[in-house]
Automatic annotation (TrEMBL):
<dbReference type="GO" id="GO:0016787">
    <property type="term" value="F:hydrolase activity"/>
</dbReference>
<dbReference type="InterPro" id="IPR032466">
    <property type="entry name" value="Metal_Hydrolase"/>
</dbReference>
<dbReference type="GO" id="GO:0016831">
    <property type="term" value="F:carboxy-lyase activity"/>
</dbReference>
<dbReference type="GO" id="GO:0019748">
    <property type="term" value="P:secondary metabolic process"/>
</dbReference>
<dbReference type="Pfam" id="PF04909">
    <property type="entry name" value="Amidohydro_2"/>
</dbReference>
<keyword id="KW-0456">Lyase</keyword>
<keyword id="KW-0378">Hydrolase</keyword>
<protein>
    <submittedName>
        <fullName>Putative TIM-barrel fold metal-dependent hydrolase</fullName>
    </submittedName>
</protein>
<dbReference type="GO" id="GO:0005737">
    <property type="term" value="C:cytoplasm"/>
</dbReference>
<dbReference type="InterPro" id="IPR032465">
    <property type="entry name" value="ACMSD"/>
</dbReference>
<dbReference type="InterPro" id="IPR006680">
    <property type="entry name" value="Amidohydro-rel"/>
</dbReference>
<feature type="domain" description="Amidohydrolase-related">
    <location>
        <begin position="20"/>
        <end position="326"/>
    </location>
</feature>
Length: 362
């Protein structure tokens, strides 16, 4: 394992008091209405969850999350056939996110939705969201109506994002092509979708030509950390670049821990990623609170039994994200309200770690 970047040791208790969630979703009412109008009741194989700003704050309090950069999940505006309707919906969602951020300074940030696959409209919206609305970055789906991020034709958008040193949160969508019966897309397909986008972003030299963009890959990067050497060898034969150059490009990605804080995934991502490129993610509310608790316990268990564990935990929980989103630096998580809630919370955390250990006997 690569040694973590030198930094001051974490203070006792720091892990639970400061946590920046880069993978948390919002479901604004106009988005819920648009999904309903299109007859969409589930996303990635899961029913559309309830969401409200207060429910998000309550969940953050429960999971010791101090700040969250919110994004609209798949399908985003790709649910609309009409490009101008998609652009209008993106604008509505981004104004909603900006207002929510203004109303809860330090707690919420937001990644703007862009109306891909219409690249010109996406450039217009990226400029508006980043320059005028103060968005913390943009969320881009790994594929938008079958068109993959990193495939030809996105240069105008990447140039605009590079010029602004934008953070680009890459989120999976349903794979082009029919679903396989019995496999909910979020459970397996989403990982391939992210891996495909990451592959093309490296293969078509997007990450090397636009080095100021900070790309975050969802869910520990899909298969990237586990399969990067295999991908590099394949790509070297295809492009004439060296595997070392290709691996350097793959290592330029940031990776979030959403739904991925099990020992095998963490081992892969912490070994592969740069130490300052792993970020905490929850995927709430599409991941239910129980799943967030389970994976938080997994992260705590793993780091407790890892060399430099407190330093790694502090880096993943907040220090690395503070480099990308400095305005959240120093924000403390809201305390659980009252002594009874604090005790209940502590018992729940301990039980969750017990359950996690039972599921992962050493
Ligand atoms: Zn998600």
């Amino acid at each position: 394992m690569e040694p973590p970047a030198p930094q001051a040791p974490a203070m006792e208790g720091e892990i639970v008091s400061r946590r920046i969630d880069v993978h948390q979703h919002l479901v604004p009412p106009p988005y819920r209405e648009a999904l309903a109008a299109a007859g969409i009741t589930d996303v990635g194989g899961r029913a559309l969850p309830d969401w409200s700003p207060q429910a998000a704050l309550d969940q953050m309090s429960d999971a010791a999350i101090s700040s969250a950069v919110l994004s609209v999940s798949a399908p985003g505006t790709t649910l609309l056939d009409d490009p101008s309707a998609a652009a209008r919906l993106a604008r509505t969602l981004n104004e909603y996110g900006a207002e929510l951020t203004r109303d809860h300074p330090g707690r919420f940030g937001h990644f703007a939705t862009l109306p891909l696959p219409d690249v010109d409209a996406a450039v217009v919206e990226a400029r508006h969201a980043l320059d005028d609305l103060g968005a913390d970055g943009v969320v881009l789906l790994a594929n938008s109506r079958g068109r993959y991020l990193g495939s030809e034709g996105h240069d105008r958008l990447f140039a605009a994002l590079d010029e602004r040193r934008a953070v680009v949160f890459v989120h999976p969508a349903e794979l082009p092509g029919p679903q396989v019966e019995g496999i909910p897309p979020f459970a397996a397909d989403f990982l391939l979708d992210t891996s495909r986008a990451a592959y093309l972003l490296v293969r078509n030299q997007i990450v090397s030509r636009y080095p100021n963009i900070r790309f975050i890959l969802s869910h520990a990067g899909g298969f990237v950390p586990y399969a990067a050497h295999r991908m590099a060898v394949g790509m070297a034969g295809d492009t004439g670049r060296t595997p070392r150059e290709i691996l350097d490009d793959f290592r330029s990605f940031y990776f979030d821990t959403a739904l991925s804080a099990g020992p095998a995934s963490l081992l892969a991502v912490l070994n592969f990623a740069r130490p300052d490129h792993v970020l905490y993610g929850s995927d709430w509310p599409f991941a239910p609170s129980s799943a967030v608790t389970y994976f938080n316990a997994g992260l705590a268990e793993y780091t407790a039994n890892t060399p430099f564990g407190p330093t790694v935990a502090a880096a993943v929980d907040h220090r690395n994200a503070e480099q990308l989103f400095p305005r959240f630096t120093g924000t403390a998580a809201p305390a659980r309200t009252g002594a009874a809630a604090t005790t209940r919370g502590a018992i729940k955390d301990r039980l969750a770690r017990g359950v996690f250990k039972l599921m992962n006997p050493s």
